[in-house]
Amino acid sequence: MRSTLIRSWLILIGGICALLMGSISTLARDKAPAPSPTPAVQEEDEADSDEAPAPEPEPEGAAESSNDDPPAVPETVMEDDATENSASDQDDQPEDAEPAPTPAAKQEGDAAAETKADEKDDADLPPPDMPDEPDTLPPPPPGGSLLEKIKGATTSLDRPEPAEFHGMRAGRSTVVDLEKGWGTPLNVTRKKEVVQRTYRLDEMGRVEVRCLRDIVQAISLHYDESPRWTDLAPALSMDNAETVEVKDEFGQLVGIAMPETGMLAVFKPGSSSRVADLVYEQIDAQAFTLRAEQRLGRDYAGCQRDLDLALVVDPQCARAHWLRARVLMAVGQIDAATKSAEAAVHLAPKNAQYRLTASALAADSGQFAMAIAETKQALTFSAAQPELKACALNQLGDQLAAGPDRDYKHGLAYHMQAIKLAEPLAHDRRTSVRQMAQEALVAAHLSAARNIAWGNWKMKMKMVPAWLNRAEELADANSTADDAAVDTRLRVYREALVACVGMEGDLDPTAWIEKAQALATPALAQATDPLRKRQLEWELGEALYDALQVYHASGDTHQAMKYGTLAVEHLEAGADGRLLEPVEAYLLGRLYYRMGAVCAMHVKDPEQAVVWFERAVPLLERPVPAAALADTGRHGESFVSMAVSYWAAGNHDEAMRLTRQGLKMMEQAVQDGTLEEEALRVPFTNLATMHKFLGDDEQAEAYGEMAAKASASRRQ
Fold first, then answer.
1. According to the 3-state scheme, what is the secondary structure of 245-256?
2. What letters, b where the CB count within 10 A reaches 16 and e where it falls short, cover 19-48?
3. pLDDT recorded at residue 189
4. pTM of the complete model
5. Which of 86, 138, 179, 553 could form a disulfide with 505 if both were Cys (CB 3.0 to 4.6 A apart)?
């Protein structure tokens, strides 16, 4: 009985899909193009830009929505006369110039305009491709020992023992034990192999014992007079136990579970305090996963303990593997999270939520083709759950925009579809449906703002703030005092700052920075779980890093240094005590580099710049994470840029080494087609200047010829 109740309630409660909002890699924080000494800023061509859609207010009567079928997804969501424009995140290239006595380097920051490639396309926007029904399920992930490895990691925990009731334990006691201990039952009923025995042991009520093949499966005490839980808990020694609330699909409290004992107090219908039944059953993994899910986002250490116990009880509990993936993902352990997500998908291949988590992790690792394919599978499996399908549409749009092609236009189309699906469900009576729909709405509005900010659209200055403000209104309307609401609102502020970066200094970030700090600072002070505290530190640090980029782009050196210093403080606090993932190390290295770039470009202090670059180089010299491979050219330009400060500070050997290292990356990017050959003029010119200064005229002449060839490629 208890197992059935728990599983039923778990299915109805579901996960809130908070992680689905975060499918964009942390590398999105560092997409802003780097300026050259004389950047060729291109004005946005209003005539060839798509008109950015305005956010629509919530329709009247939404609160009266029913559980009828959701409205049909529109075939197109853009204007009929929309034109296709592709946006590139590559840096603009400098004009030809004679080398100065010190290298005429490409100092990277964020002041250059994003290169716009305006390809005219008068055709209507085609509807986004939807996945076909798969003929067969995908094969299980390679390495059949994965589950055994995870199981082995938790075998040090003792398996909990079920609570005893009048000398009997579920799963341990037998029918013979019952006859010896309790005597003859009042009644016996049989249904195939299940035998139910009814007893009256005292004046509290009748006791029903369900047996299967002579083993006691469950003991249910039905009270004649329903006692209050607050009175009953001390008598059961449960007043200080770690319990978990069990709620129905409408969010009403219907019981209290005690995972370590296998006990469940079922409340009287219509009451949230009086106990009708007390059930003793075998230890169930689902009870631990339910408590872990309720702790998720506020107590990661406790959440991990619950999931460890769940997997000791049942190593093949797919939901426990999935929740573990979400915990590990939240604290930045992408590789470990991926293994847990793979295990969940292997055990439950048709579960759309599990597939969406695996897809988000693949995108964070730079495997966008795999991520998109997985998301399309999830779309197929979520057809009967429009609120979950909205999350999948959001994730697909995010992955198209973040992938190598930077397809902001089709990404936006998917976000518009997600809004149409989620809006009718945002006030649904079912708790899990309502919460997931609300999360999807906030995520879709934020993603739309980001795609408009980074893409080539008309009326960006008007539309981006409108979408951001609407997202904030939705988040505030559904906010509560819990940690999930803090995460949602912090997400809004962080995404707003990402949009500000994409607007290249045209959107004032001040209000969003202040809101992020005002929200995160008290949350940090109140956080008692170390993992939760590190997560908040890292997320606030990312937001402040975006602020640095915006102020650097606008030339406000004071504000750039102020928020860059704060970003370093918080990101380093978030990195304390854990091994950084490649993406995180890359982000921290980029932050150090940008701080040095501000010192070099604006403060004109090469020695101070070198101090920052010395912290950046060891991190940036690590293998570029897969999610950043499309930015290899810009990464190489960073090394060329840093070399200038080393040269000015008198460290000629390091300057030449870094220039050659950057040149190698840039040549690879040219070969891959992600960087124009003309960009090689800068490192070639710098190397020519360096060799000439050191008296190596032969090498200087050779590099000078290479620089001239690169310059000629642009004129051609």
1. EEECCCCCEEEE
2. bbbbbbbbbbbbbbbbbbeebeeeebeeeb
3. 94
4. 0.76
5. 553
